[in-house]
Known about the structure:
Layout lengths: L15 E3 L2 E3 L3 E3 L13 H13 L4 E7 L17 H16 L4 E5 L12 E2 L13 E2 L2 H20 L4 E6 L4 H6 L14 H18 L6 E8 L8 H13 L4 E6 L19 H7 L7 E3 L6 H9 L5 E3 L2 H5 L3 H6 L17 H4 L29 E5 L3 H12 L3 E5 L8 H5 L8 H14 L3 E3 L6 H6 L8 E4 L3 E3 L12 E3 H5 L8 E5 L3 H10 L9 H8 L22 E5 L15 H10 L3 E3 L2 E7 L2 E6 L7 E3 L3 E4 L3 E3 L4 H6 L3 E4 L11 H14 L2
Parallel strand pairs: 3-4, 3-12, 4-5, 5-8, 6-7, 8-9, 9-10, 10-11, 11-12, 13-14, 13-16, 14-15, 16-27, 18-25, 19-20, 19-25, 20-21
Antiparallel strand pairs: 1-2, 17-26, 22-23, 23-24
Helix pairs in contact: 1-2, 3-5, 5-6, 12-21, 17-19
Bound molecules: NADP nicotinamide-adenine-dinucleotide phosphate and iron/sulfur cluster.
Amino acid sequence: MSTAPNPHYPRLFEPLRIGGITLRNRAVMGSMHTGLEDRYWDTDKLAAYYAERARGGVGLIITGGFAPTRTGLLLPFAGKLTNSVDVHRHSRLTKAVHKEGGKIAIQLIHAGRYGYTPLKVAAGSEPSPIHPFKHFKMTEQMIWHVIRSFGQGAKLARKSGYDAIELMGGEGYLINQFLCPHTNDRTDKWGGSTENRQRFLVEIIKEVRKQVPRDFPVILRQSIADFVRKGQTWDEIALMARKAEEFGVDAINTDIGWHEAGIPTIVTSVPRAAFVKFTERLRDEVSIPLIASNRINTPEVAEEILERGRVDAVSMARPLLADPEFVNKAMTGRGDEINTCIGCNQACLDHAFVGKKVSCLLNARAGRETVLTLGATRRAKHIAVIGAGPAGLAAAVSTAQRGHRVELFEGSEKIGGQFSIAARIPGKEEFNETVRYFTRQLEINNVTVHLNKRVTAEELIEGTDGGKFDEVIVATGVTPRVPKIDGVDHPMVMSYADAVLGHREIGKRVAVIGAGGIGFDVTEFLTVDESPTLNLKEWEQEWGVSEDLTKPGFVTKPRPLPATRTVYLVQRKPGRQGKTLGKTTGWVHRATVKMKGVEQISGARYDKIDDAGLHLSFDDPDTPSRILEVDNVVICAGQESVRDLVDPLTVAGVTTHVIGGADLAAELDAKRAIRQGTEVAASIN
Ligand code: NAP
Ligand code: SF4
């Protein structure tokens, strides 16, 4: 191993010692439950998923959570490590990672009241707001059983070949439930005083240390900001960290926020590295390595954090899902080739929380490494891709990566499609990274790009200077739907694209028609002056992150910035708006719209639009008709597919693939678009 500093990110590529092992760099792939942990028949898929990331150069992989005892399962039949049969299965994971030169730690988790199972147990009586099942409050005997199971789990982890273990002590899982009065209402020696609430974790650490040699690394995932009202104070967190070090923890991987917290901690609108200051504070308390996490998604951000010298490593789970080659690319100065995680959660956490297998919106291969392969083609073909939105870009790049000769046609002056619109929404600036990524990938994979070129079917049938096309991929996307409303052609009416792209002046009073994903986005856009650069201070005020370290959980009253416009968000369906938004992001959008004072109107009929504004009536006889006196109406009523090329090409006998919004406009989403683009590329032989 070279000892010279890496010329690009010298701190990130310094080795790091944790207990008895040395990591090759300071990039840690944080724990992320993929769903592949839960069934033995998925073991090879999980091994391939980890192996690909180990090959990508990461210093340490931490697995998704595995329970050390059945009462701690995340859901029925979830991943566990409790016996020698499990050891056999886990050995296959560790061998796959070691073969690629990587290191892997297992996360031992007890879900407590967060378990999606009727057999769950927890510290106190407070029910879980995120799962339906009731739990049993633990008896003294149960408590000692769980403590011993963590020790047993550590022993079995070592036997399975793991390089380290991580004890999950954050995010509101069982250990965290004992630590906080929010969930620990016990009156025995495991509740009440700080010492009593910390006893459970202290005993676990002691037990684990008894079961594994001193040089076997034990990492603690410690919650250092609970963001729940009766969470820990800073003094308690600092004391717990000191005790962890004293009783034999070798590193602290800092964790932010419970799943039930009212402050977002991972979505794209959270400023990058927003919580690193909490990790840095811990530096004054302990001397063991500290790992920072949450919204660290580029090597630049990682390097900047490490350079300040108060944090020893950075944890990046989703960024490694999005790009398994992240670390190698950074190491070799190819940071601009990284497919940067945009914090959308659409294919990772939104899947995890509804029991679906995790993947990545940007990287359809994530979690499907063994089934979606992009090997070199044996016969290079000449391929046309029409449309440079997410579907077309994914198709063009993946097809070219396989060795085909690709020409990409785009009618507008730049690539990106719906992503370029999304990037202008406040808090969605990360989407620019995807456009940057594809721009670079088109370059390095020698895709011929024709911008401002509305290619015709005749031209495609005829071919270009490069010859006739063997196959054509139609990714012409969508056009905003124009609903049939009397007066929809009034000058005050505009499409969401025109509104967001700044093509039209927008007045101070606006009605938004359609409360789907885009309706919410546009509403947020309209309540601020212009798409702001992410400002941590304002963001903390808006969401109520307290500066006062004596405040339990660091939660305070939110102080949102006032809306810059009066906005009405209207839909035809009765009931609550935003039901179709993502599981882990929808609540943030709903809360944002609420905090900006937007009036949300459901069950409306659009009677007409005229100089007076938008005329609404309602099926509900108790709701009187009304006129929304607005300067503008922005239409966010879904989309329709653009498929003009499909029929002529098919009739001419051209092998034609239709993907993304052109294939299906309903429920259009970038996740499906990119997956279809990748799959079509994999299928062209
Ligand atoms: P959408 O979510 O399907 O919403 C379209 C809205 O338009 C519906 O709420 C519907 O509500 C209304 N509508 C449909 N036909 C209409 C008509 N003829 N007249 C008036 N209103 C009509 O579609 P979208 O907002 O365009 O978003 C597209 C996709 O992008 C979504 O599926 C989502 O996956 C993705 N996206 C998600 C987010 C996010 O999660 N934050 C953000 C942006 C985009 P009513 O029928 O009740 O009026
Ligand atoms: Fe990141 Fe979105 Fe991919 Fe999840 S789905 S890893 S948040 S880009």
